[in-house]
Input
Amino acid sequence: MPEGRGFAPQYASVQHRDEAAEIGIWVFLATELLLFGGLLFAYFVYRHANPAAFAAASRHTDIVIGTANTAILLTSSFLVACAVDALQAGARRICIMLLIGAMLLGLLFLSLKATEYAGEYHEHLVPGINFSFAPPLADGAELFFTIYFVATSIHAIHMMIGIAVLAALAIMLRRTASTRLCAALRTAALYWHFVDAIWIVLFALIYLPGRSGA
Amino acid sequence: MTEPDYLNSSYTLRSWFLTTDHKRIAILYFASLIAFFFIGGAAATAIRIELATPQADLVSSDTYNRLFTMHGVIMVWFFLIPSIPNTLGNFIVPLMIGARDLAFPRLNLLSWYLFVAGGCVTLFAIVAGGIDTGWTFYTPFSTLYSNSYVIIAVTGIFIAGFSSILTGLNFIVTIHRLRAPGLTWYRLPLFVWSLYATSVILVLATPVLAITLVLLATERFFGVGIFDPKIGGDPLLFQHLFWFYSHPAVYIMILPGMGVVNELISCFSRKPVFGYKFVAWASLAIAAVGFLVWGHHMFVSGQSLLASLVFSFMSFIVAVPSAIKVFNWTATLHKGSLRFDAPMLYALGFLGLFTIGGLTGLFLACLAFDVHATDTYFVVAHFHYIMVGGMVTAYFGGLHYWWPKITGRLYSEYWARTAAVLIFFGFNLTFFPQFVLGAEGMPRRYHVYPPEFQVWNVLSSGGATILAAAYLLPMFYLGYSLFFGSRAPANPWDAPGLEWQTSSPPPELNFESQPVVTRAPYQYRTDFTAEPQNA
Output
């Protein structure tokens, strides 16, 4: 193995390696899209079968927290995008500050989400634990809330992974800003934006039905 | 030998279990797959013994359900799907494209650990008492009524799914970015094309299985209804989601086999594959159209007739690229300088068995016939002709073809040919009677049957004995060759592929210097007369 090359032997150059990483994350995001796609498919099938119940159930979601969380995530994505630019411009400290800001917003999102879950628990909206809903729409509403909890908790797991990745990068950036970390940050940023984009779709599907024109 | 090869560069356990060398990881996969093949095969053996008589004499109904579920789950997820991609693909693809490794070697190792972890979790479910749902986990039985270890089993499959995804991702990036200078897409060996198509399916279909299993486990664990008709859920939605993965998964299981057969037929006909571009694009066409045919598993489920018609039509369409391949392989043989070495015998076996499997697939794509044959042994025979007659035969063929490269040793050609012929006859004797049984109406998944079916079942069980013995044979002569076989030359088949241009076994970084490619693949010399094998 060539010594001191700084990149793995299967690559011809640093740029070669970074391009591979970028294709890799796009392929990974395609996988993620299909993961959420299966869930969204189930949502659409059931919403098509129970339009009234889905609208009624949606009106029981907390649109204030949902909207706030959407704004929070969009802001965090903006910070992550700035962090990538900052690092490419050589501003390592600013990059770290921006990442910390994005992580804090991510944590804020998760705590608001937890508050929202607690509220739904008190309103008896958690299927399998304490679900009650006015008939005759109870069945469809239970389907809505089951998918809601599965989708948002899988999204939350993605958020936690994203925060952990940003934290690891911020810690590594304290010591040095190698080209490898630059590429890693671009990759992590794509993932963060993707999780953000998924939330925007979830927001529209969870909070908005039954609220327009009502 | 100037440089140590990948096998003798280090002997510590650590150098194996923490290796990032694609060749060593391929060996790790190979060893684990043998274990799973034996577990799945043991279940098949018990099934065939039970079915030798019409009465229940070996196991109870409940145990029988658990046996065929175990056979299906292990063979599909822990043998067939990873078989060629993760062993031969892992080993050969970087060599074929002139790369030093896959794009993400550590991810490759992680993929193996995930596979083993998923396998252990699933094995735990089996040891703890088994699963009785069939490998398809149909709801509401799997969520509401089954008393077996469904959640643990699907957790194992969920974990192994990520192993599949990471492998597919690694191959896609590797094939895009790590081809040697001059190695354009149309100069790639067709094995690489077929693994590329396979990887696309792995990456796009597996996550849908993952989310489906999450929904299934959620419904079962929390007692909520997602697929439960009592609260407006739809069991058919589960079937749609499941087959959206599991039908493309059939192509995950056959495309790599087709890829291997390209290499074998070309090498032992000493000719380029006829219609290279058609075969290359046929792989991608199968991957693409394969996503649009899942509903043919649901013709009797109550889905709309219009949907059934469309799925039936698409199922006929997906046969076209497969047929293109079969015709082109046959045309490759035409006027070739044929040699019947063991790998070629496997390839020819594949050609016959896959064709029977494919043609009976067309029967089943017909709505009218499928209604008659649904859930009968006709379906069982059909997919075993593809999965076992096709994929496993191709796997053995590829294993023999690349064995000298992988191990640096030559095996006994006599025993290898014997095993290839025995596998072909044993396989046909096992599964052809099942076509007859199915056409006569014997349903699958029952362990008792009317006495008039016995003669065909005895034939099938008898064939299974031959098949089992034939599958055991390579264990002995290949194992023997590891220690006592003569040393393999770098290029025992006089083949032009890049993997043959480096030593056997290859050095740690595959090539002494970066290969450069200047011509199309399969440019064989036809004056090849040397006897490479010791008899």
Summary: The first helix of chain B runs from residue 13 to 17. Chain B has one domain: 22-530. Chain B has a mean pLDDT of 94.
